[in-house]
Amino acid sequence: MDNLPPQSWIDQPATYQIIIKGRLDGHWADWFDGLTITTEKDASGTVFTSLIGPVLDQGALHGLLAKVRDLGLPLLEVHRLPTRADPHQTST
Protein backbone atom coordinates (compact mmCIF):
# COMPACT_ATOMS: atom_id res chain seq x y z
CA MET A 1 0.00 0.00 0.00
CA ASP A 2 2.97 2.27 -0.48
CA ASN A 3 1.45 3.73 -3.64
CA LEU A 4 -1.56 5.32 -1.90
CA PRO A 5 -1.83 9.10 -2.16
CA PRO A 6 -1.46 11.23 0.97
CA GLN A 7 -4.57 11.31 3.18
CA SER A 8 -5.21 14.95 2.23
CA TRP A 9 -5.94 13.87 -1.37
CA ILE A 10 -8.90 11.66 -0.47
CA ASP A 11 -11.46 14.46 -0.62
CA GLN A 12 -10.08 15.93 -3.86
CA PRO A 13 -11.49 15.36 -7.35
CA ALA A 14 -9.80 12.56 -9.29
CA THR A 15 -10.32 10.52 -12.41
CA TYR A 16 -11.43 6.93 -11.86
CA GLN A 17 -11.90 3.83 -13.97
CA ILE A 18 -14.54 1.38 -12.75
CA ILE A 19 -14.59 -1.99 -14.53
CA ILE A 20 -17.61 -4.25 -14.31
CA LYS A 21 -18.48 -7.58 -15.87
CA GLY A 22 -21.34 -7.26 -18.30
CA ARG A 23 -22.67 -4.67 -20.71
CA LEU A 24 -23.90 -1.17 -20.00
CA ASP A 25 -25.04 0.91 -22.95
CA GLY A 26 -24.16 4.58 -23.28
CA HIS A 27 -27.66 5.65 -22.21
CA TRP A 28 -26.57 4.90 -18.62
CA ALA A 29 -24.01 7.75 -18.72
CA ASP A 30 -26.36 10.30 -17.12
CA TRP A 31 -27.18 7.90 -14.29
CA PHE A 32 -23.45 7.43 -13.74
CA ASP A 33 -22.84 11.18 -13.47
CA GLY A 34 -21.63 11.58 -17.06
CA LEU A 35 -18.83 9.00 -16.92
CA THR A 36 -17.68 7.68 -20.28
CA ILE A 37 -18.94 4.14 -20.85
CA THR A 38 -17.06 1.73 -23.09
CA THR A 39 -17.70 -1.97 -23.61
CA GLU A 40 -15.15 -4.58 -24.69
CA LYS A 41 -14.86 -8.34 -25.07
CA ASP A 42 -11.83 -10.32 -23.99
CA ALA A 43 -10.39 -13.26 -25.94
CA SER A 44 -12.90 -15.65 -24.36
CA GLY A 45 -15.86 -13.48 -25.39
CA THR A 46 -16.59 -12.19 -21.89
CA VAL A 47 -18.04 -8.67 -21.99
CA PHE A 48 -16.63 -5.94 -19.73
CA THR A 49 -17.71 -2.33 -19.30
CA SER A 50 -15.43 0.52 -18.21
CA LEU A 51 -16.77 3.69 -16.68
CA ILE A 52 -14.15 6.44 -16.76
CA GLY A 53 -14.25 10.05 -15.70
CA PRO A 54 -13.85 12.64 -12.99
CA VAL A 55 -15.26 11.92 -9.55
CA LEU A 56 -15.67 14.76 -7.05
CA ASP A 57 -14.59 12.92 -3.90
CA GLN A 58 -14.71 9.60 -2.06
CA GLY A 59 -18.40 10.07 -1.21
CA ALA A 60 -19.23 10.43 -4.91
CA LEU A 61 -17.12 7.35 -5.69
CA HIS A 62 -19.03 5.31 -3.12
CA GLY A 63 -22.28 6.54 -4.67
CA LEU A 64 -21.18 5.31 -8.09
CA LEU A 65 -20.17 1.95 -6.65
CA ALA A 66 -23.57 1.67 -4.98
CA LYS A 67 -25.20 2.17 -8.38
CA VAL A 68 -23.10 -0.68 -9.81
CA ARG A 69 -24.23 -2.84 -6.89
CA ASP A 70 -27.87 -1.85 -7.40
CA LEU A 71 -27.71 -3.03 -11.03
CA GLY A 72 -26.42 -6.40 -9.84
CA LEU A 73 -23.34 -6.25 -12.08
CA PRO A 74 -20.11 -7.77 -10.73
CA LEU A 75 -17.52 -5.12 -9.83
CA LEU A 76 -14.11 -6.25 -11.07
CA GLU A 77 -11.73 -3.31 -10.59
CA VAL A 78 -11.54 0.31 -9.48
CA HIS A 79 -8.54 2.45 -10.44
CA ARG A 80 -7.69 5.99 -9.43
CA LEU A 81 -5.99 7.20 -12.58
CA PRO A 82 -2.90 9.37 -12.30
CA THR A 83 -2.94 12.97 -13.47
CA ARG A 84 -0.19 15.49 -14.03
CA ALA A 85 -1.25 17.30 -10.86
CA ASP A 86 -1.07 14.07 -8.84
CA PRO A 87 2.63 13.10 -8.63
CA HIS A 88 2.07 10.65 -5.74
CA GLN A 89 -0.34 8.40 -7.64
CA THR A 90 0.92 5.47 -9.66
CA SER A 91 -1.07 3.34 -12.04
CA THR A 92 -2.18 -0.03 -10.64
Layout: helices, strands, pairs:
Blueprint (H helix, E strand, L loop, with lengths): L13 E8 L14 E6 L5 E9 L2 H14 L3 E7 L11
Antiparallel strand pairs: 1-3, 1-4, 2-3
Description of the structure:
Helices cover 15% and strands 33% of the residues. It has 92 residues and is of the alpha+beta class. A hairpin with a 5-residue loop joins β2 and β3. The protein has one domain: Alpha-Beta Plaits (2-Layer Sandwich). The model has no long low-confidence stretch (mean pLDDT 86).
Would you state the CATH class? Alpha Beta
Report the structural category.
Answer: alpha+beta
Integer tally of domains: 1
Any guess at the CATH architecture?
2-Layer Sandwich
Look up the CATH topology: Alpha-Beta Plaits
Shape: globular
Low-confidence stretches: none
Strand content: 25-35%
Q: Give the strand order of the largest sheet, numbering strands 1, 2, ... along the chain.
A: 2-3-1-4
Number of helical elements: 1
Instruction: Please report the total strand number as a whole number.
Output: 4
N-to-C series of helices and strands: EEEHE
- The amount of helix comes to 10-25%
Kindly report how far apart the N and C termini lie.
11 Å
